[in-house]
Amino acid sequence: MAASKIGIDELIEIVSDDGIVRTGVNVYNTKNRLLLSGDYAVSNVNTLLYLKSIGITELSFDPEKNGTIRDKNGEDRLVESNLDNRALSSIESEKLDFTIFSNLNNRLREIHKLKHEAKKAYEGAKQNTIKVIEDIKRTGGEFDYELVENTVMDILSFLTRNENTFSYLTREIFSYDDYLYNHCLNVCIIGTAVTRRFNEHFSSEINKYLSRLYSENSLEHSQVSDTSFLYYLPEDLYDISIGFFLHDVGKVMIPEKILNKKGRLSNEEFEIIKSHSLENGIKILNKNMIKSPFINNIVKYHHSALFKNEGRCYPKDRLHIENPAYVKICKLVDIYDAMTSKRSYKNACNPVAVVTDLFHEYAHKDQMLQFILHSFVNTVGIYPPGSMVFLRDGRMAYIIDSKGPIVMPFTDTHETTLTDQPDPIDLSVMDETEEQLKIDRRKPVISPAEGYNILPSFLKEFIK
Ligand SMILES: [Fe+2]
Ligand SMILES: [Fe+2]
Predict the structure, then answer these.
(1) Residue 363: which CATH number?
(2) What separation in Å is there between the alpha carbon of 362 and the centre of ligand 1?
């Protein structure tokens, strides 16, 4: 039988019914990143649901490349060759293809549109998060797992839209009271984005190494697939994202007056806080029959060591080498989110400063950690488009593009709003003599919701 395309719904039905699908054809996104290896036998329906959630409606299937579809009895399922042999399936990804300086207004509209969609997606996810947390409080531990899955699916589908979409999805809502809800979501969103980048980067380095090894042993290159190794499979990534969402689930059982205490915690209070991971967190997972090792590891160990002899970690007897990369990512993102969030007793720190400081503090401690930190910096070490920053000369500026970054100043050096629209500035082309035109990292990033009143009319019209 020749290669063909099969509808994703048909495959979901087969796998849901305990069947197995191996397509024989790798699935990539438009940026040539491997989403599903053709060699991999899919037995968990979440893998296919994930592909569907990011817009894939059909998969290529090639029996000549070992493609197999079997039902629960191990019988081959025949699939009609129903479509022509088009190129591999790909995601319809929205591309921000524009020249900023020649089409500024379109860019501002685009930022606003994405922010608006992000806000809606974030709000929807937050309502679900509130429901999950309220359910746990009410029942003493039980919650609707499907609601968590749906929430994570929504986040994943938004994240896949384009390279930096995640930056639109975070920091939208600042609220003192909603810390736990926002924190669950932020750690899930940022952690997922970092883990994906880490997975691509790490897998590609291993593949390069294997290619070199093969060519040194004079095997023909054509025998070797460049994408034969994938560190985390799509279904692993899905569980990891759920784990990020649930990492602090045990905090629901901690009295709020201890969780939100402004001053220093007593030893006794700290012991109570510590029980949110290994004790309460795991109790809640067990109550809901959540067995995934990814989720369990994240909940248990997201406060344990990143490197040898790290102090103030718990549980103390868990060694850093026992912690998988995704657990370390959870811990880093947890610290990052706590530092960059605004609380009733503290201001938010500048996110790029936080991530750079974390890198300097931890990178030299351990090689693997350094690898993880590179993915972390490359994912979150950017200023989100549509946010506002301070320049070192005291002016405030609106981020037009994270790359550069390209900014548009909108106040003078005394923070007085400008009336005329200035040209955007690409900060990456500034030389040493223009130090004052850099971003002031000591000051936090401001969201448009917070800074709306000081925006000039030429920006407000895009942010209505
Ligand atoms: Fe925690
Ligand atoms: Fe946390």
Answers:
(1) 1.10.3210.10
(2) 19
Q: Where are the alpha helices (DSSP H) in 160-292?
A: 165-169, 179-216, 234-246, 256-259, 267-274, 282-287
Q: Judge if 138 and 199 occupy the same domain.
A: yes
Its domain, for residue 33, covers 4-70
Report if residue 82 sits inside a domain: no
Q: Which of 429, 434, 406, 461 is nearest to 101 (CA)?
A: 406
Assess whether pLDDT exceeds 50 at residue 90.
Answer: no
Q: Are residues 251 and 399 in the same domain?
A: no
Question: Quick one: pLDDT band at residue 297, thresholds 50, 70, 90?
Answer: very high
CA–CA distances in Å: residue 313 to residues 131, 318, 448: 31, 9, 37
Establish if 109 belongs to a structural domain.
Answer: yes
Residues 247 and 173 in one domain: yes
User: Beta strand pairing status for 396-401 and 27-28?
Assistant: unpaired
Indicate the number of domains in the chain. 3
Tell me, what amino acid is at 14?
A: I
d(CA 151, CA 58): 23
Asked if the structure places residue 85 within a domain, the reply is no
Which tens digit of pLDDT belongs to each residue from 161-203?
A: 665 666 676 655 444 457 788 889 889 999 999 999 999 999 9
Q: How far is CA 170 from CA 87, 330, 375, in A?
A: 35, 16, 18
Distance 213 CA to ligand 1 centre (A): 41
Contact status, residue 58 vs residue 106, Cβ threshold 8 Å: no
**CA 247 to ligand 1 centroid distance, Å:** 6
Last residue of some domain: 364, 380, 396?
380
Instruction: Spell out which residues have Cβ within 5 A of ligand 2, the ion.
Output: 248, 334
E strands along 3-154, which residues? 4-7, 20-22, 27-28, 34-36, 58-61, 68-70
What pLDDT does residue 325 have?
97
HSE, CB side, 13 Å, CA atoms: give it for residue 346: 12
Domain boundary among 70, 89, 115: 70
Do residues 408 and 424 make contact, with C-beta atoms less than 8 angstroms apart?
A: yes
Ligand 1 center from residue 246 Cα (angstroms) = 10
